[in-house]
Write a structure and sequence with these properties.
single chain, alpha+beta, Ribosomal Protein L22, Chain A, 5 helices
Length: about 200
Amino acid sequence: MEVRSIYKYARISPKKARDVAREIQGLPVSDAIDTLNFTPKKAAFLIGKTLKSAVANAENNHDLAADSLLVKEANISDGPSFRRFKPRARGSASAIKKRTSHIYIILTDEGAEEKAPSKREQGNRKKPAAKTEKVKEEAASDESVTDSAEAEIVAEDQVDADPVQEASDHSPDEETGAEQVTEEPTTSEEESEEEEQKD
């Protein structure tokens, strides 16, 4: 069932009021009232009065619970403009339009439980879920690739480690040092033999 409330000849520009009215469309009544209470604009106060009037109409005239109501529509239409004049240069006058608005609020109790998340929210929820699944799949494939690459690197390190260790056990300096050590006794022996021959 639909319940409506109208505020005619509200002393505010329709353009200013539409910015606030867009924010409450499709919301539950409690969320819409909270939004309007925390919006520091004149339009929020006027639209809030109209919304509370619509809720009162639903409770008193149609025996509906306020918790089960949604804001189906919040429309702002143009009302008549008051024409005022302001003096200008050289004795001329310029017109000033003081605009008015008609505020229409329509509440409904159809599909209040099913329609808790709006279509916009459902669309936003589905897309990130698919993206997160793709990201998880890519991360899993990346992990498997990195694990296999690390296993190959470890295997190569183990294969390369043995020759490196053997080479480090017998470094070139040690080999030359060993040769020099073995050569030194041979030279001293030859010198001693030469000295004995001279004697």
